[in-house]
Amino acid sequence: MASCACPTEHGRTAIDGYDPAARVKALEQVLVEKGYVDRAALDVIVETYAREVGPMNGAKVVARAWIDADFRTRLLEDGTAAAAELGFGGRGGEHLVIVENTPKLHNLIVCTLCSCYPWPLLGLPPVWYKSPPYRSRAVIEPRAVLRDFGVNLPETTAIRVWDSTAETRYLVLPLRPEGSEDLSEDRLASLVTREAMIGTGLALAPAVAAI
Ligand code: FE
């Protein structure tokens, strides 16, 4: 089984009776007191992920791929290099693989071990992505999981599940929605949700996004 370097406890959650927030605070206190980490540096990292790194980055990549066929080709061939063209990369994005949805194939991303995720393009993973039920059911019954997220695919659409690791992290290139032919790149990016890039959702229809 692939190794994972995520700073998590691989499956241990609040179920074991501890409050994760309190544990994080206590761990931070100890590390600061012993001089292993600098609190100001920690604040910079947290601020960066809160304000500058998030799904809006991945949405820009997707929108560019929708309007630029050459970029799309490069993105599918080497996701890391293509994302770097738009200025996105770094920790958690050293080996990005972009998987393209088609009418015949829908891609779904999971990390069965813990929570590996393409940080430079999506930011930090949502709580459900790290939950044991998602991590197991996404593999066992992906079509049912998609229904739980409100995505009902035709039986003729196959589902492929990609298991992320610390080394390789995936991003879904969703189908471009109908009715979006005349939209600007920025407007297209506004149709691309975090869920669409994980595969638990679809890109928004322009009429829905305008509401
Ligand atoms: Fe992980």
Structure description:
- About 4% of the residues have low confidence.
- This protein has two domains: 35 residues, no CATH class; 156 residues, Alpha-Beta Complex (Nitrile Hydratase, Chain A).
- Strands 1-4 form a two-stranded parallel ribbon. A two-stranded parallel sheet has the order 2-3.
- The protein has twelve helices and four strands.
- With 211 residues, it is mainly alpha-helical.
- Helices cover 45% and strands 10% of the residues.
- Helix 3 crosses helix 4, helix 4 crosses helix 5 and helix 8 packs across helix 9.
- The radius of gyration is 18 Å and the shape is globular.
- The structure holds fe (iii) ion.
- The site of fe (iii) ion (FE) has 7 residues, from loops.
In helices, the fraction of residues equals 40-55%
* Helix/strand class: mainly alpha
Q: Look at the structure and give the mean pLDDT.
A: 89
CATH architecture of the largest domain: Alpha-Beta Complex
Calculate Rg over CA atoms.
18 Å
User: In total, how many domains does the architecture comprise?
Assistant: 2
Quick structural overview:
The protein is mainly α.
Please give a handful of descriptors for the protein shown:
single chain, 211 residues, Nitrile Hydratase, Chain A, binds fe (iii) ion, two-stranded parallel ribbon, two-stranded parallel sheet, 2 domains, mainly alpha, 45% helix
Topology:
Layout: H1 20-33, H2 39-51, H3 55-67, H4 69-77, H5 79-85, E1 96-100, E2 105-110, H6 119-122, H7 127-130, H8 132-140, H9 142-148, E3 158-163, E4 169-173, H10 185-189, H11 194-198, H12 206-209
Helix pairs in contact: 3-4, 4-5, 8-9
The structure holds fe (iii) ion.
Residues 4, 6, 111, 113-116 line the site of fe (iii) ion.
